Amino acid sequence: MKRIGFLSFGHYQPVPGSAARTAADALRQTVELAEAAEELGVDGAYVRVHHFARQQAAPFPVLAAMAARTSRIEIGTGVIDMRYENPLYMAEEAAQVDLLSGGRLQLGVSRGSPEPALDGPAAFGHVPRPGEDGGALARRHLAEFRAAVSGVGVAESNPRMTGRSFRLPVMPQSPGLGERVWWGSGTRETARWVGEQGMNLMSSTLLTEDTGIPFDELQAEQIGIYRAAFAAAGHGFTPRVSVSRSVIPITNDLDEAYFGRERGSADQVGSLGEPGLARFGKTYAGEPDVVAEQLAKDAAVREADTLLVTVPNAVGVDYNAHLLESVVRYVKPALD
């Protein structure tokens, strides 16, 4: 059975028509939407993380609030930019949220995406070592984080306090969290690396490469490469794969007013300001049966076990609950 989750970018802006005019609005509404989604039978509530922007930034407080107000739904991120993170402090925060949630945390991490700051990680005190670039910095932080959540000792004990010398792990520990780390991949080569490393795979509505084939086929190729690499490495557990999509079943006049113009959306190819082209996935908007049929034919959606529906959080909780209800009612049955 396919899992369905929502992914919120946590936008807020004091502009006419926005239901999320402040950061406080966006945070509270994210928690409220997680509650509503759980009642609707949605399987996951995920937040995107951006720095130096009017969006969700530090995710662990809002994840803890979501954990406290729900009992079943997965809570997670898609994704945390590891260049910005203190790996050991993040390990403590993640373990505490996972324990509060009863083991429901699904932690999506990655190198991050283009952002407003020229060198945001440096402002947070994280600078690549000689010979490293931003990607290598993110992967080093990831390795330190994964070691910490696995219980490896990371600091020498003080014998005067402990009675002996040994390496102390960070505390608390949350068993199983290490198998619920996901890496956000934008290329086939990165997908292979994720499989080799033994993490779950997240793939969004953006791929940072283009081979001329449709977005869903390129993403499905990425998933196949990942699964083969994971199997060859023999990690000993069953991995998961999620893909993100913009999905708008149009069932009333408000849907039509907001998103009717998205009917007939197509893939886009463009530049992110870096070498090479990127491919952006289309929006699935239209009558529910049409959207369900189109998604059922999406090659990557068929290959993934989890579909994350990106929600337009600035239009408010009620509308997004309606949107998710339409997805659960009309689209999910076609994917199972």
What does it look like?
With about 325 residues, this protein is of the alpha/beta class. It has one domain: Luciferase-like domain (TIM Barrel, Alpha-Beta Barrel), CATH 3.20.20. The chain contains twelve helices and 14 strands. The chain has helices at about 25-40, 60-70, 85-100, 120-125, 135-150, 160, 190-195, 215-235, 255-260, 290-295, 300-305, 315-335; strands at about 5-10, 45, 75-80, 105-110, 155, 165-170, 180-185, 200-205, 205, 240-250, 270, 280, 285, 305-310. It has an eight-stranded parallel β-barrel with strand order 1-2-3-4-7-8-10-14, surrounded by eight helices. It has a three-stranded antiparallel β-sheet with strand order 9-12-11, with helices on one face. A two-stranded antiparallel ribbon has the order 5-6. Helix 1 (about 25-40) runs parallel beside helix 12 (about 315-335), helix 2 (about 60-70) packs parallel to helix 3 (about 85-100) and helix 3 crosses helix 5. The termini are close together. The mean pLDDT is about 95.
